[in-house]
Automatic annotation (TrEMBL):
Protein name per Swiss-Prot or TrEMBL: Ornithine cyclodeaminase
Family the UniProt entry places it in: Belongs to the ornithine cyclodeaminase/mu-crystallin family.
NCBIfam families linked to this entry: PRK07589.1
SUPFAM superfamilies xref list: NAD(P)-binding Rossmann-fold domains (SSF51735)
Species in which this protein is naturally found: Roseibium aggregatum
Source organism superkingdom: Bacteria
Xref: InterPro entries: NAD(P)-bd_dom_sf, ODC_Mu_crystall, ODC_N
Record's signal peptide: none
Length: 356
């Protein structure tokens, strides 16, 4: 596959580059999972630094008792991107993924799509990259130990991203299912990380400078109680990502400096939903742009209330789009009607019948 397709104008394309699950895995293997997450983190940071150029709105949800389906759109004035994503915690009991997704990048001038990609694997990669990027600014300097509570599908990526971006070497893992922790330790056996499987959440956070919570149950849970969190810790709260789903006791929030992606969305879906709308929070784009500080003291408790935001997916799709000419791992998707005369769409249908 040559890269000339990426040098054409969208109006000159007869197909859309499509990254299937198989090709996404090929792309990740081609450059390495940790390199991919570092690359995505760089693209996220770059896009957050030009935050004001983006259209921003909370994602558009369709809720059901079993879970949620969401659309996450954004645009920087030149390119439009969106992700379709679901979150259904009960799926695992039926052998299905909790989270699946796909995404599209399009040229805003013509409306033609530039990329169509799976985003189940890509969402896991960008979520972990986003967590580690925030921690670069918020975690104690020289952090080496991370507790990870919830050892499901996202946990491996989180551990590897923190190793790559922060130099974490020790993982203290806890899950209600010991099998999940054993799976995590097995997958990370040759990663350079030392994984200790813990019997309780309290045991997991002992000695950890960073605490990551990434549980799946759609409920108001208290994974961390106030007495579990001492001074100087950075909390990476990933699992609370829809209305009625939390992981932290409210008192932890009251003692923490809270950093969020987009307050209007986080207040609906994150730990922030436990607090009044006017409770002070800091937007991460301001930290990345250098207009406000991240961590300011050794004893400070910092909390990244992560829910995921469309600009992160936009950045991840941009990264994949720019990676494809180097790897060639994509397919030509026949998605665009391309009649000889743009006004004669029906004529194209007639001619195809004759050709058949």
């Amino acid at each position: 596959m040559t890269e000339t397709v990426f040098n054409l104008k969208p109006s000159e394309l007869a197909y859309v580059p499509f990254v299937s699950v198989d090709n996404m895995m090929r792309n990740v293997r081609a450059v390495g999972v940790e390199t991919v997450m570092r690359g995505i983190a760089d693209y996220i940071e770059e896009d957050f630094r030009r935050w004001e150029s983006f259209d921003k709105k909370p994602r558009i949800p369709a809720h059901a008792p079993e879970g949620v389906i969401e659309l996450m759109p954004t645009s920087d004035g030149k390119t439009f991107g969106f992700k379709y994503v679901n979150g259904h915690p009960g799926n695992t009991s039926d052998g299905l993924q909790t989270v699946t997704g796909f995404g599209v990048l399009s040229d805003l001038t013509t409306g033609y799509p530039l990329l169509f990609s799976e985003m189940t694997i890509l969402t896991a990669l960008r979520t972990a990259a986003n967590s580690a990027l925030a921690a670069k600014y918020l975690a104690p300097k020289g952090s080496k130990t991370m507790a990870i509570i919830g050892n499901g599908a996202q946990s491996d990526f989180q551990c590897l991203a923190f190793k790559e971006l922060l130099g974490i070497t020790e993982i203290r893992a806890y899950d209600l299912s010991t099998e999940a922790s054993v799976r995590l330790a097995r997958n990370l056996a040759h990663s350079g990380l030392n994984v200790t499987i813990c019997k309780t959440a309290e045991d997991a956070i002992e000695g950890a400078e960073i605490v990551t919570t990434v549980t799946a149950d759609k409920k108001l849970a208290t994974i961390l109680t106030d007495n579990m969190i001492g001074s100087g810790v950075h909390i990476n709260a990933v699992g609370g990502d829809c209305p009625g789903k939390t992981e932290l006791h409210r008192d932890i929030l009251l003692r923490s400096d809270i950093f969020v992606e987009f307050p209007d969305q986080t207040h609906i879906e994150g730990e922030f939903q436990q607090l009044d709308r006017d409770h002070p929070v800091t937007e991460l784009w301001q930290v990345y742009a250098g207009t406000v500080p991240g961590r300011t003291s050794q004893d400070q408790i910092t909390l990244f209330d992560s829910v995921g935001f469309a600009i992160e997916d936009f950045a991840a799709l941009r990264y994949v789009h720019d990676l494809l000419p180097k790897t060639g791992h994509f397919e030509k998707l026949d998605l665009l009607a391309d009649p000889d005369d743009p006004r004669d769409l029906y004529g194209m249908v007639l001619r195809s019948a004759h050709a058949a």
